[in-house]
Design a protein that fits this description.
The protein is an alpha+beta fold. The chain is built from ten helices and twelve strands.
């Protein structure tokens, strides 16, 4: 079995729903083919019936217009029959045939004058049927040079009441056949297009199944990744806590030299950075798995802002930065206090971290029934292109200033997720080499009790 067929067979075998799709496609195609076939037969029958009715009506009218057989003027009749033949292109020949004393059928009048007086040799069952029932015209189907035609015969009595005269019309079916063939051809074109469309849908469905299978595998891998991150982060927490505890103990010891204390401080700083990374990874895992819990309480943001600013003032002083707070209005908001602290530490800490000189200010005010926490700095700023990716996981602005700053690129993503979980929003506006303005908004809590 060729490799392509083998692959297709394996796909059909591993995905039973494809069999159902293929079955439905074949049923639809088969049903359409049957409908087309039946339609062509019905249309052909209808067209032939119309031709018969037309021929019968033509003979009926012509018979009524005729006087008794003995008084028929062959020249006048021939002229009228020729006129009728020219008006109706389906009429191949139009004849009045009389039976002479010898029992032979002779053309008495005709749309083709060259046929007058000649023996009519195309007698058929229609003449016998017409003679047996002169009130009706009888039609039989014939083939000449691969073309179908109808022969319609109507018997006429003479003045003596004898039946020896027949009006005969040969009517071509080629026009009807052309119409039917065209309808069948168009139907087959439509059928082919429909079949192609069904197969395209089938192939797309097969492709969709591939995507579903791939999605399931990616979900499994993603779950395994989240589980691993969660497990690894939890397992790292214990040794990190121990390392930081011993580092703090050694740092307070009086028996260490200045150089040794620097080593211990470096260990504690590195352990602290790793602790931050582990915390970020744990938060990412919790957020993605929907396991991050929130304990909502009524909070006055002024107290928390002042507390966070004071806790970070030492970092600002080390960089000779001015750190200030302007409280215009502070309203109660309903948030998780611990998560709000985490957000403010991240935002204000980033402003201090990425400001080389100048100031960082934190403001509180209300706007449109929202509490706004505004953090402004005179830092390195963010380019317009970089601002579009700020809240993506693991994204960090890359330039000559940020290369000196340690970070994971997770802080803003986590911050945004936490803020939005607490029904807030965050907006960052920045100009490169000028500074950054960050606005965090929360709905003002209105106690409706």
């Amino acid at each position: 079995m060729p490799r392509t067929l083998h692959t297709a067979w394996n796909k059909l075998r591993s995905h039973p729903q494809l069999w159902y799709t293929l079955f439905v496609a074949l049923v639809i195609a088969g049903a359409f083919f049957v409908v087309v076939y039946r339609f062509s037969n019905i249309a052909q029958d209808a067209e032939e019936r119309v031709q018969q009715v037309r021929a019968g009506s033509l003979l009926e009218v012509f018979t009524v217009l005729l006087p008794d057989s003995g008084a028929i003027n062959p020249l006048y009749a021939s002229i009228k029959m020729k006129e009728i033949s020219e008006l109706d292109k389906t009429v191949l020949s139009f004849d009045i045939v009389k039976e002479n004393s010898d029992g032979k059928l002779v053309v008495f009048a005709s749309s083709d004058s060259t046929r007058i007086g000649s023996e009519y040799r195309n007698a058929s069952l229609s003449f016998a049927l017409a003679k047996s029932d002169i009130t009706n015209a009888y039609t039989t189907q014939h083939v000449l040079n691969n073309d179908r035609y109808f022969k319609t015969v109507r018997a006429v009595k003479d003045s003596r009441g004898l039946v020896n005269t027949y009006i005969v019309v040969d009517q071509s079916l080629s026009q009807a056949d052309v119409v039917i063939e065209g309808a069948i051809r168009n139907s087959m074109y439509l059928f082919s297009l429909m079949l192609i469309g069904v197969m395209i849908l089938f192939l797309r469905h097969a492709r969709t199944i591939d995507y579903i299978s791939l999605y399931k595998r990616l979900k499994e891998v993603d779950t395994l990744k989240d589980d691993f991150i969660s497990m690894a982060s939890h397992e790292l927490r214990t040794p990190l806590t121990t390392i930081r505890g011993y580092a703090e103990f050694l740092n307070e010891s009086k028996g260490l030299s200045g150089k040794e204390k620097e080593y211990v401080s470096a260990i504690d700083t590195s352990a602290q950075r790793l602790d931050y990374l582990v915390s970020d990874m744990l938060d990412v895992s919790r957020i993605e798995q929907g396991r991050m819990s929130f304990n909502y309480t009524e909070v006055v943001p002024e107290n928390i802002v002042n507390e966070i600013v004071e806790s970070l003032r030492g970092n600002a002083v080390k960089k000779n930065l001015s750190l200030s707070v302007q409280i215009k209005d502070s309203k109660i908001i309903r948030v998780d206090e611990v998560r709000l602290r985490q957000v403010l530490v991240n935002i204000i800490g980033n402003s201090i971290k990425y400001t080389r000189e100048g100031s960082v200010s934190v403001g509180l005010y209300t706007e449109n029934k929202e509490q706004v926490i505004h953090v402004s700095d005179t830092g390195i700023g963010i380019s317009k292109d970089a601002q579009e990716h700020l809240f993506e996981k693991f994204y960090r602005v890359k330039n000559k200033y940020t290369s000196e700053v340690v970070g994971t690129g997770l802080g803003l993503w986590i911050t945004k997720q936490i803020i939005e979980h607490m029904h807030g929003s965050i907006q960052i506006e920045s100009i490169e080499n000028v500074g950054t303005h960050t606005k965090i908004r929360f709905p003002i809590y209105l106690n409706k009790k």
